[in-house]
Every structure is written in C-alpha cells, then in structure tokens.
User: What shape does this take?
Amino acid sequence: MNISIRPYHDDDLKACRQLWVELTERHRKLYNDKTIGGENPGAYFDRYLELPNLAGVWVVESDGIVVGFSGLLTIDQDAEIEPVVVTETQRSQGIGRLLIQRLVEEAYRLNVRFLSLSPVARNKEAIELFVSLGFDIVGQVELFQELNNPQDRQWMEGLMLHGRRLRY
Assistant: This one.
C-alpha cells in the first residue's frame, strides 16, 4: 500500500463529496438517525470548501485513489482539524493517524497556539485515536436539549463530567 498526503485539488471534488457522504452515514449509524446530513449530504462538502476560515484541505491517496481527507479551519491563532474522514475499508490502518500528524505539522507552520478536534461523542474509535495523538485537553463541552421529537433518537447513558450524569 503506497500512501501519500497532498493538498486538495479541484479534481478531488467527486471523491471528497463521496467521503463526506460516508462520514454522514457513519454519524447516522452512530446515532440511529437517518435525518443527519439531510437528503444530499455530499452538498455539504461544497459549502465546506467555501468557508472563509478554511486554511486548506489535504487528501490521502492509497495507490493513487483518494481514501481520506481533512481540513484546517483557522480562527486568529487557533485552529481546528475538521473533519477527519477515511473511507470505511481503509480505517484502522494508520491513515487517519498520518493525516492528523500532517495537519499538526501544518498548524505548527502557521504558528497556531491551540489546535482542536471536535469528534461526535459516540465515535469512540476517533476519540481514542485523537487522545493517543496528544489531544487530551478538554477546552469546552457542548450541551444541548432535544426539543422536537425527543422520542425519535435513543441517547446513550453513562457519560460523567464533574459528577454529572450526561447522555450522548
């Protein structure tokens, strides 16, 4: 397997849109919610490319085929790696690790002070990977209430933070 990481090019659009669809499907499965991402989740990749704070997108090729991508969003001296996507058949082979390491290098080059990631709470594998790469500081927690159709989604129990039991 010949892996390379390079900057995104316009001819990567179709492959990256499909990877965005895979990411959406992963989140739909994690939360058992087919509405996540709407009817055309690939279109969100187009919107992503238009974000004014997008410093760059990098793609991973395996034997010349795009199998993953990630981007770096900058805000002043801070940055966020968002998203990290590796096609399902190539996961758990070190590709995500290499991709994140490449974006960490880019963040150093940009003199970023704090670099963050925001995985969904149920993505245990991603969280384990990110922590193993040094992302072990919790900067903020997003809490919310489900106001409409609360019976549609089944929340998991067992997350504790500051002595409080949370669902995720």
